[in-house]
Design goal:
The complex is a heterodimer of chains A (496) and B (182).
Chain A: H1 6-9, H2 15-33, H3 68-78, H4 84-93, H5 104-107, H6 113-122, H7 131-146, H8 155-165, E1 187-199, E2 208-223, E3 226-235, E4 258-260, E5 264-270, E6 275-282, H9 296-299, E7 310-318, E8 322-331, E9 335-336, E10 343-354, E11 357-370, E12 377-391, E13 396-407, E14 413-425, E15 428-438, E16 450-451, E17 454-455, E18 457-469, E19 472-481, E20 487-495
Helix pairs in contact in A: 6-7, 7-8
Chain B: H1 5-24, H2 35-47, H3 72-81, H4 91-101, H5 114-120, E1 140-141, H6 156-177
The chains are: A alpha+beta (496), B mainly alpha (182).
């Protein structure tokens, strides 16, 4: 499938023209990136048979940039359908070919022009389908042979066919910016904008705040097996805020706007894309990759996707039943000076035990001369744990994770969460989440034990998540944690 | 085939405008980060010199801050200085009260008073030498990490220039695509 080279799309054998085009697209991407945005992984997609991530995401462990196929599936599987045909067809026809998604041709729509030609031979065009839906369809046509659960196969073919024949298909959901921008095969563009409104009625002042939480754009260029992936965004946080700082590119330490880059890496795919080796600034491979960066399980292990990324090298494997990633952490070079940089490793390994169940283990050990959060000297942090993703039914999914926390000069602690996601109707989710945290009592500073530091601290979330329009999500959360006031969050998320 | 590009272009343009408008009027994203500037002002006034923006660890157990995560000095300041939760505007008064009522208080018991340690930039909650310099650490964020002066890095001139570059590239690309007469 990888006969063609990406350079053919870049301008044939004329290197000058190829370079001009590459430069042009790069600058356009940079310009677009000046406007805000980020798309997040939805780990509950396992209920649709998507146990692994690279089918829909450029990152082999999920999150952020969507592949063209992922963009189509986002439109087909996530969002609410209005009217008779939309809702019914979506519910009954769109089931993913289980375990067939790990293949490179599923994963990357940025492979080569030759793919398209092959695909056209395999699956002639129907109607006005775009080249992307053709590609997806052709891939889907091969899927049944690959799928271990072939009976579920029609699915992506059905989905893309539905996309190609319904009036909505004209919006070409596989293309960037709601189909307005057709990118060449070697290029993926994406991004997201999250606007957050916070209401804390228990506070004496500043009960209400509204601000853009995320404004990032992402891109990936792929030439054969070689990939360049980067994201850039803008952010403005208050002085002393723990958020976003560690992802800053520009050096403003106050409450001015800063540019940030959460991820930027180079990678190479081996073994038809089942193995990816990367180096650069990446999300830490650990646990369930959820978008809620303030969830204790992500915050206490410092493995969120908000600004906990680190520089290093990683190897990821995505097989039929097994997937995992190991990253050697060289430190976050956007944090200065060097004594605050953590070095060590982070990994996860997940095994698909059934059609809709995956269990995994995670492990992380890092050390720094001085901890940038606690400012403790010579700190080694460890987190080791288990996680599970299970789709009980088509509508009900459980995500859970539990980790032991070990830290220098602290007693052993733990953190965990369990989230139940019920999709009432296509595109409308109700979620209930419980979490627990004990980071361990500080044995040097001493003092009384408190909830979260020597004693368990509990929290609970209630969420309504509505994928109301193509690539648009509206979400409302109410959460309450012991020793904190009740907080309500309203979020508009547009993912490009 | 019915083309629906125009409405979509309008929708996207409207969305971009709304996004840009929200950015231009945005408050900074914050947890309770109203406190650090208030504490900075209070300490600058108390010691009659410029003071750094203190880390959350001055009053909290970690730099993540949070309710009921106060350390021993934070608790003392809250109780004896009179600083109720969620009232950053009362920080200056609380420091003044604390200085007046607890002038010799030594929260971490290391032999130096809280006031002395605050003046040194050391933590009044963590005994020396461990607490030395913790209030004003040398941590900096960003590539190259310097204190950025105003104006912010993304300015209108920059946006306009980037737009011009993109436009120029588009025109150039079209010209390159246009077949030349032979």
């Amino acid at each position: 499938m990888l006969k063609g080279s990406g350079t053919r799309k870049l301008g044939g054998r004329d290197p000058l023209r190829a370079f001009q085009r590459f430069l042009g697209w790069s600058l356009v991407a940079l310009f677009v990136s000046l406007f805000p945005s980020r798309a997040h992984a939805y780990t509950w997609m396992i209920k649709h048979g998507y146990a692994s991530c690279p089918v829909c995401h450029a990152d082999p462990s999920g999150g952020e940039l969507l592949t063209t196929y992922g963009r189509v599936q986002s439109d087909e599987l996530l969002r609410m359908r209005y009217g008779k045909s939309g809702g019914e067809s979506a519910r009954t026809e769109l089931r993913a070919p289980l375990l067939a998604q790990n293949r490179l041709e599923w994963k990357s729509d940025a492979n080569s022009g030759a793919d398209d030609e092959d695909d056209k031979e395999a699956a002639p065009k129907t109607g006005d389908a775009t080249k992307d839906t053709d590609a997806a369809k052709a891939d889907a046509s091969e899927a049944p042979a690959e799928a271990t659960a072939g009976s579920e196969a029609p699915t992506a073919a059905a989905s893309t066919e539905a996309a190609s024949t319904s009036p909505e298909s004209e919006s070409s959901p596989g293309d960037f910016l709601w189909g307005l921008v057709k990118t060449p095969d070697w290029l993926l563009l994406g991004g997201s904008y999250r606007h957050l409104t916070v209401l804390r009625p228990g506070l004496a002042t500043k009960k209400f705040a509204t601000f853009p939480m995320m404004a990032d754009v992402y891109g990936q260029a792929q030439f054969g097996g070689f990939r360049i992936n980067a994201g850039i965004g803008a952010v403005r946080v208050g002085v002393g805020s723990p958020y976003a700082r560690a992802a800053q590119v520009t050096g403003g330490q106050g409450d001015q706007w800063n540019l940030l880059s959460r991820t930027h890496w180079l990678g190479y795919d081996f073994a038809e894309g089942s193995i990816t080796v990367r180096a650069g600034h990446m999300n830490l491979p650990f646990g369930v990759r959820i978008p809620e960066h303030t969830m204790w399980v992500r915050q206490a292990t410092r493995t969120d996707r908000e600004s906990a990324q680190q520089d290093g090298a990683a190897i990821a494997y995505n097989g039929e039943k097994l997937r995992g990633e190991l990253m050697g952490i060289a430190g976050n070079f956007q944090v200065n000076p060097d004594k605050y940089r953590e070095r060590g490793y982070s990994l996860y390994l997940e095994y698909l035990t059934g059609e809709h169940t995956a269990v995994g283990v995670s492990s992380l050990i890092t050390s720094a001369k001085q901890d940038r959060v606690t400012l403790d000297p010579k700190v080694t942090r460890q987190a080791h744990g288990l996680f599970i993703r299970n789709a009980f039914t088509d509508n009900l999914v459980l995500l859970a994770e539990a980790n032991a926390l070990l830290r220098t000069d602290h007693e052993a602690g733990y953190v965990g969460f369990a989230q139940v996601d019920y999709e009432i109707t296509r595109g409308l989710h109700l979620m209930a989440t419980g979490e627990v945290l004990d980071e361990g009592h500080n044995t040097v500073v001493g003092g009384a034990r408190s909830r979260g530091a020597g004693e368990p601290r509990l929290g609970g979330w209630g969420t309504v998540d509505w994928f109301c329009l193509p690539h648009v999500e509206i979400r409302a959360d109410v959460f309450s944690r012991q020793d904190d006031t009740i907080t309500a969050l309203g979020q508009l998320h547009v993912f490009l | 085939m019915i083309h629906t590009k125009k409405p979509r272009i309008a929708s996207v343009a409207a969305a971009l405008l709304v996004g840009l408008a929200s950015l231009s009027t945005a408050q900074p994203a914050r947890a309770s980060s109203s406190y650090p500037p208030e504490v900075q002002a209070a300490l600058s006034a108390q010691f009659g010199k410029a003071y750094c923006v203190p880390q959350c660890i001055l009053c909290h157990q970690t730099n993540l801050g949070g309710l009921k995560t106060l350390n021993v000095f934070g608790n003392s300041l809250s109780l004896k200085g009179g600083l109720p939760f969620g009232s950053p505007q009362l920080v200056a008064g609380a420091f003044a009260n604390y200085k007046e009522k607890q002038s010799n208080a030594d929260s971490d018991g290391d032999g130096l008073s809280d006031e002395t340690e605050l003046e040194m930039g050391s933590s009044p909650s963590i005994a020396l030498p461990r607490g030395e310099g913790l209030i004003c650490p040398d941590i900096k964020y960003g590539c190259g990490a310097r204190i950025a002066a105003a104006p912010p890095p993304v300015d209108h001139v920059g946006l306009f220039s980037a737009g011009l570059v993109a436009l120029g590239l588009t025109v150039l690309r079209r010209r390159l695509r246009t077949p030349r007469p032979s």
